[in-house]
Design the sequence.
């Protein structure tokens, strides 16, 4: 079994993060999944939620992901998201205002997106 897998997190408009990792945790339509080196091949649909990547150097990368696909084969994990933002790119105050607006407007989809962004930015999983 290999010690690392190669991860590509790509949004519709850009490459978000790429590099070696020891573990990736993502939410799929079948539930949360953890992918380690040597995992069996998989193809799944991503649900909106935080994605946590344990990097090869021992760090952690967290991203808010909204829809897409996950694919793993030959020690390469691809996360192809409709929208993805790294936690350090998220303006917490702006996300909090978006959450308040969504609640006031009773917009469930916008409320869910804002909650996911806040969870990714603050580390509250």
Sequence:
């Amino acid at each position: 079994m290999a010690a690392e897998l190669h991860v590509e997190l790509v949004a519709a408009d850009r490459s978000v993060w790429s590099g070696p990792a020891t573990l990736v945790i993502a939410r799929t339509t079948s539930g949360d999944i953890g992918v380690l080196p040597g995992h069996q091949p998989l193809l799944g649909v991503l649900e909106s939620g935080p994605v946590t990547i344990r990097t090869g150097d021992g760090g952690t990368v967290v991203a808010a992901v909204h829809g897409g696909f996950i694919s793993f084969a030959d020690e390469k994990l691809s996360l192809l998201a409709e929208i993805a933002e790294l936690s350090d790119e998220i303006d917490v105050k702006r996300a909090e205002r978006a959450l308040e607006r969504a609640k006031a407007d009773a917009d469930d989809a916008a409320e869910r997106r804002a909650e996911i962004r806040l969870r990714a930015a603050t580390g509250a999983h």
User: Anything to note?
Assistant: The radius of gyration is 15 Å. The longest helix spans residues 108-122. The beta strands are 5-11, 14-28, 31-35, 42-46, 49-55, 60-73, 76-86. The chain has two helices and seven strands.
